[in-house]
Predict the 3D structure of the following.
Amino acid sequence: MQLTPEDITAIRLSLQIALTATLLSAPLGFAVAWLLSFKTFRGKILLEVFINLPLTLPPVVIGYFLLLMLGRNGWPGSLLNDAGIQLIFTWKAAVIASATVGFPLLVRSIRLGMDSINRQLIQAAESLGSSWFDTLITVILPLSLKGILAGSSLMFARSLGEFGATIIVAGNIPGLTQTIPLAIYDYASSPSSTAMALSLCLVSVAISVVVLFVHEYLAGTVGKRGER
């Protein structure tokens, strides 16, 4: 297996983007999962539909919407541009794209972990005078930890494979925004680069297998705990 310096940069950038997207999304994912698991409110179904929408939309569509919003003519993009912050066609835009497409998977896994929590433990904490925040930190968060880790690993794996939204909003710039899927796309367009594309494919498979093994282990642990 032969890897060029550009390939190694693409691998490093893929891991960096996936890890950053996962870490930034985890707190919000936990908050949204808690809201959906423990609260009843008007518009809950609409929130669930909105959260899960990226699962059904083509990634290219998501990327185009992000391009409209983060571009100079978009409201968020114009504010960022006035502040001297450039996102489009940078690795940060790739992080946003990866976070958007992977967020529903994160929320689903965390919510699964929260739904497996014995509600009597929460009621006991509340009966002892714990506030909702204390209960959240001392009961719900520890018991949801494996669900959080399982969801984070699944989102990380999804971020590694993100292509459609990334190429629209971040482009395919070697050394700057070119991730493993984008590098493979470049190699696939040239018949003489088959071996290079295969090398990156094997690297991608190896990373994904490791991440998915971690996910299955954690998800299985959460499932067994819920059966008790």
